[in-house]
Amino acid sequence: MKIVYYTDQLYLHGGIERVLANKVNYWVNEKKIETHIITSEQKGNPPCYNIDDKVIFHDLGINYNRKLSYYHPQNFIKVPKHFFTLKKKIKEINPDIIVICNFAFDFYFIPYILPRITKIKEFHSSRYFENISRNNCKSLLKKLNFRLNDYIESKYHYLALLTEDEKPYYYSNNTVVIPNPLSTYPEKTTELNAQKVISAGRIAPVKGFENLILAWEIVAEKFPDWTLEIYGNGEKEYINELQNQINYKQLQNQIILCGSTNNIEEKMMNASIYAMSSHTECFPMVLLESLACGLPAVSFDCPNGPRNIITDNIDGLLVERGNIKKFAEALIKLIEDETLRKKMSKKGRENIKRLMPDNVMNIWLNLFKSNLSS
Predict the structure, then answer these.
(1) Model pTM?
(2) What gap in Å lies between CA 81 and CA 48, rounded to an integer?
(3) Is the dihedral of CA 43, 10, 15, 215 positive or negative?
(4) How far apart are CA 1 and CA 13, in angstroms?
(5) CATH architecture, domain defined by 196-354
(6) Homologous superfamily assigned to 2-181+356-372
(7) If you ran DSSP here, which 8-state letter would residue 18 be given?
(8) What is the pLDDT along the chain (374 residues), one digit of tens a residue?
(9) Sheet strands (E) in 140-288
């Protein structure tokens, strides 16, 4: 068997990149499967996560301008080169399976490149809000665009979704549900005695860090000795807005924007609570990793991921989406009660075992094999 994973880049920290690194390392080390990664704009950068030398890299060098729309002339003119360069590379590798990880303009033409090869399109974000927009859409042009996307999706052999909750938002009968596997299950866990809460992710408005800051303002009044650390890189304008918000609230000594880290596990081991303030998530890796490290989590019950990972009041606390006061109260509850933190820590470690790599990757392997024999 020969597998190709296709994405735009692997040099920026993010959940897709982390999951992809874990998967390719598993295939080459645990199953001895020849595995390739094709990128369209790696730009000579090394991968941000460790990837085994046995994984074979290819970069197409298309290099779209990410600040512009794909339909902008500067980008659209590159589409023919993209199509033919990708087709040539796939012919050269001759894989049995292609897994498409990202979502970009190439979504529209990949199904038509060597149709005999099984192509699986992964979706890593929730369509909850998009579906609301679709149902309320009045624009004929937008309606046609939704229909076009439905048609293209039907041309992939499979659409891989992360949760059952997402299935109603897709309009073809080729969906499969496969969750993300754990990237780590450390032998040791956090001791839960640090006066620290952490959060991590791409620094972008969808992550709702502005609400986390508002919640921490409430927490800080009662627990001024506790700190909140936020890890990740992202949109500079949004990062500046968050820092200005922190400065305005005079919380500079209690909330720290730490930038990205290559060792989030180490940071989790030195914390006592994980906080997730996202407006929407699908199956966030950092939430899985926090439970594996023994960190109880507080999360907004946002569509559609956290409820599929956290069991409310068992290994974490789910809070009504957008309710900042309740979010602060949940953090305070765990800060005040070390016994509860330890109880949830133990339960989280037990519950997350269902997502150990062998359990999840065998689902993928069975799917791959079923197409080889069909």
Answers:
(1) 0.88
(2) 27
(3) negative
(4) 29
(5) 3-Layer(aba) Sandwich (3.40)
(6) Glycogen Phosphorylase B; (3.40.50.2000)
(7) H
(8) 999 999 999 998 888 898 999 999 999 999 999 999 999 999 999 998 899 999 999 999 999 988 888 889 999 999 999 999 999 999 999 999 999 999 888 999 999 999 999 999 999 988 998 999 999 999 999 999 999 999 999 999 999 999 999 999 999 999 999 999 998 899 999 999 999 999 998 899 999 999 999 999 999 999 999 999 999 988 899 999 999 999 999 999 999 999 988 889 999 999 999 999 999 888 888 999 999 999 999 999 988 789 999 999 999 999 999 999 999 999 999 999 999 999 999 999 999 999 999 999 999 999 999 988 55
(9) 158-161, 175-177, 196-200, 227-231, 255-259, 273-276
3-state helix, strand, coil in the chain (%, to 5): 45, 15, 40
The one-letter amino acid code at 69 reads S
Burial 318-354 (b: 16+ CB within 10 A, else e): bbebeebebbbbbbbebbeeeeebbebbebbbebbee
Beta-bridge partner residues of 299: 276, 318
CB 128 within 8 A of CB 303: yes
- DSSP string covering 22-71: HHHHHHHHHS--EEEEEES--TTPPPSS---TTSEEEE------TTS-TT
* Amino acid letter, 141: L
Strands (E), the chain: 2-7, 34-39, 56-59, 97-100, 118-122, 158-161, 175-177, 196-200, 227-231, 255-259, 273-276, 297-300, 316-319
Q: Give the separation between CA 197 and CA 330, rounded to whole angstroms.
A: 12
CATH 3.40.50.2000 residue ranges of the chain are 2-181+356-372, 196-354
State how far the Cα of 24 lies from the Cα of 35, in Å rounded to an integer.
7
